[in-house]
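Hi there. Long-time user, first ticket. I'm pasting a complex I've been working with (about 604 residues overall). I'd like to know whether the download I got is complete or cut off, because the file seemed smaller than I expected. Thanks.
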Amino acid sequence: MNITLDRLMPEPLASIQHGETSIWGNKVVLEEGKRILLNASSGKGKTTFTTTTIGLRKDYSGSILYGDKNIQSFSTDDWTEVRTNQISVVFQDLQLFPKLTVAENLRIKNSLTDTFSETELKQLLEQLEIDNKWEQECGLLSMGQQQRLAIVRAMAQPYEWLIMDEPFSHLDVDNAKRCMNMIHERTIAQNSGFVLTTLGDSHGYSFEQELFL
Amino acid sequence: MLDKLLFKNQDRLQLLIAVFGSFLGVTFLVTSIHYLIKVQEFGEGADILGPNTIIVQKKVSNAGTLGLKATDFSESEIKKIRNMSFIKEVQPVRSNNFKVMFGTKDPLVPPFSTDVFVQTIDPQFLDVKPDLWHWEKGDEFVPVIMPRDLFVMLNTFMSASGIPQVSDDVVKQINCEFKLSYGKRAEHLNCRVVGFTNQVSSILVPESFMQYGTDVFSNGTPQKITQILISGKENEFGLVEDMLEERGLESRNSQMVVGRLKSIVGTLFIVIIAISIIAVLVSGLVLIQFMQLLMSRNAYEVRTLMRIGHHPKKIIRKFFLYFVRIFGIITAIGFCAFLLLKFILDGVFASGGVNIDTQITLTSVLALVFAYGIFALASYFTAKKGIFNEY
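Hi, the file is complete. Here it is re-exported in full:
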């Protein structure tokens, strides 16, 4: 599924002058299966890109198309289907449930599609070296651990696109690399694509496309 | 897991207060409706006159005895009473103006006969089956409603004659007869008791029989209406009583007492029902408000669940079922409390000599179901609105 941003301009960014290469106000196609880096400094709209593209914000002009369907025509059922089976997200503020344990945070997502078994979920945590936190309350984890948990949760569904909003901002180089490897493997296995927003660091990964804001 | 996420962190005290308020409201609602119905039903079927119905006559004063003051009712007097707001219906009670004798005519009982006074009233006031209450010349027997006093007298006579006394059912099987006469003309007509009354002192007969007697055996004297039958509106019997006092009318005291008591107790229960309805509404509103509070406290959780792919309908269902279950438990406990109260109150009534029917009234159960339905509906729409606010 291609995602087309056709002269997209979020209202809060309308008064700012954007460059010719910016995705704002231009036509950009996120091609199916591509691994894309979205590079921008602070305040240019990386989070706005994420929330607008997945339909959480509606204050924009222009249009966003999933395939050939304008997302403004999507019903509640359509959005539930998109968020369950087509687009997975790692939010900048993570959107975890601090009162639930790590296991419960993963189950509450995984139960929608039964993508992984409990063993597989534990193996994913083990890859990111937080498997010992399985029964720990999520709110008690460090920001870096929470970020890794949010990434594993995003893996726990089928997707055509994985959109990540500064997912490694609290991770050291080694942990970011481990995460990147996991994301790569999972994305390749599903023939899907991803968009990673960043302040400039490509985390040593070879992206197929780079976009700017 | 969703239950833990959405319902674990809540203010239990507020929930308990709302639950307790609802429980009290539900219990009082079902109890008051039940006893209001029982009070209205009290005495029904015990007599042939319908509920809130009395027979009245003018108080006889010395002037009346001397013929200086009329003791009968004019058409205009009847019309005035009929037009009063608390009166449902007024009908004259017609009396015989021909000679009638009533006696037994059965080989199983000794002969007994006496001059009697017969009356007829509009069948709409009588609690007897219409197919029993008609007569035409040539019919096998005339149906009659016997005053209890006469029945007691008959039994006393039987006892004095060395014959076992008879029950209500047996007396209905005894063949009796009327003897109508004028001068040398006389006619014997079979009759049979079809019911009893405490409220009328004369034998009641169908209107067609009264008309026949008047047409064939009357001495020509016009019939005077000395008694009228008044049917008051439910729970306004006190006003009927005031009107009787004001107009110098009187009725049998027992009829008045029952009517007055039913009116007072009925009004009392209506007040309790009103208070209970308010209590149920207020506590229902508190529960709904608690639901809104719970949703607003869980706004982040609700929003995030939808962002990671949980359908809003699923979350609405969670909140809806949670509160419907709570109100279901309240209703069930309220109903059990009602049964306990009923057991105690029925005992209190019985020990006071008031034997009311102890069956649970369908209306009180339906009232509970209705209250539950309203709450379920309100819960659903509140949950729907709250969840979609976060969508």
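A couple of notes from our side: The mean pLDDT of chain A is 93. Residues 33-56+75-212 of chain A form a domain with the Rossmann fold fold (CATH 3.40.50.300).
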